[in-house]
Amino acid sequence: xxxxxxxxxAVSTTVLAGGRGERLGRDKATIELGGQLLLxxxxxxxxxLSTDVIVVLRPDQQLQLQGxxxxxxxxxxxxxxxxxxxxxxxxxxxxxxxxxxxxxxxNLALVRYMTSLTxxxxxxxxxxxxxxxxxxxxxxxxxxxxxxRALRQGQRRLVSFYTSLRVRHITPEEIRLFDPMERSxxxxxxxxxxxxxxxxxxxxx
Length: 205
Description:
This protein is α/β, with parallel strands linked by helices. 28% of the residues lie in helices and 21% in strands.
């Protein structure tokens, strides 16, 4: 079992649910996986991590969700960066775990390990061989002014506000201690990926 300095750090969680799912033909928030809404699955998972769960929607979305707060994207109301801004602004805790609603295999042990590394940092983010995972990361509220500035500048890249902030990268070696197959970062964009997720659920993975 992996040992680390566990923490009782209270965090908020932001679930970004505004994706239009163009390649799937419908909003990602309304996709069903394993007989339940994909969004509901993700909210249930993160509820074990946080009592303050925020779902960020597009202004034109109408979803009824119990037990969570809903907010809409920050101006200019497009892109995941606007969703991060809205979630951080609404967070009741100083730290917020941000995740996309189409990531059904969140590894809570990995996220808790990430929370143990927060002292002295502003962002805790997995860094895989294929790149960073900004929609599976912890952000401190100190990031919010930098996110707003990036939005005002018309930035769309999710890591565009990282400059001057203290970033702790979770290495591939650290990730594998908790999630050897890296399924935490699997997200659903296509019918084929939805079928793969269903197959893994059938296998009990």
